[in-house]
Amino acid sequence: MTLQEVNDFSIKDIVNEEVDMKSYINKLVKELRDDIEVYERLKSFNLTMGEVKENIGKLTDYREDYNYCKACPGIAKCAKKTPHISMYVVKEGNFIAVKYEPCHKIMEQIKIDSRYLLADFPDEWKSVSFSTVDRSINRRPAIKKIVEIIKDDSSSWVFIKGNHKVGKSFFLVAAANEFIAQTNQQVAVINARKRFKELSDLSISNPTEFSKNVVALSNVGLLVIDDFGDEYKNEYIRDQILMPILLEREHQNKTTFFSSNYSIKEIQQLYSVGKNGGEIRAKQLANVLEEMCGKEFDFTGASIYKK
After folding, report:
1. 140 and 100, same structural domain?
2. Is-contact 163 300, C-beta < 8 A?
3. Model pTM greater than 0.85?
4. pLDDT per residue over 157-181, tens digit each?
């Protein structure tokens, strides 16, 4: 500040600034009192007007944070400086303190995510259930069987076939969510094309991780293999990945669901690869599927998706 600026800065300026600050504080206090929800949350502290004014900065920050979270734009769109963190106020003696905690929505999301060992589907599907699926007449027998499997803790498997985009994946994710809700067990919903290739690559690049993943898929409470048959097929995938997982799940009576564009007989043909006993191994695969799944549920029909 120059000498001239010092000379021009009078006591009047300071007084006016004090008056403006008092007006500003009073304005913030009024906004706080007019915010009924926030005011009710602070009432239990029995704050005096002096305490409110002394801590108006903290209380205003809390009010703004509370109202932002109240109108939450969604976890993915949280625009806070520190996303997914909520502010709360405590009174420790005569001192008002602001503290922070993870927001309830992110904690609920973490809880939901922990239920899935793997989830190869859109996040928004984690909230779907049988109340939201297509209940057309050709789907009701599948719903009935899945409900019975979950209710009776049955080890039966389910095989759903049908053409592309008829809602097979959505249906089985809803089934997985019903399984979680009723059994509190973890599930894995895997895309066959993606995960079998991933496992095949891991068998070379990281055998320890490969073994760990195969064991996990063999033991998870419910395994859903989606788009079964669309994956790349060779002897290794059939004999060292798919069959060991299915045979172990059969042995442990673990529930397994499949969605596919193909019938079990067609799956057998697709997996009849290799020169040495390929057809025999493919027949073994089909036998396991037929024995554990029984009837195949056919969802073939018009697409449920808009083009």
Report:
1. no
2. yes
3. no
4. 999 999 988 999 999 999 999 999 9
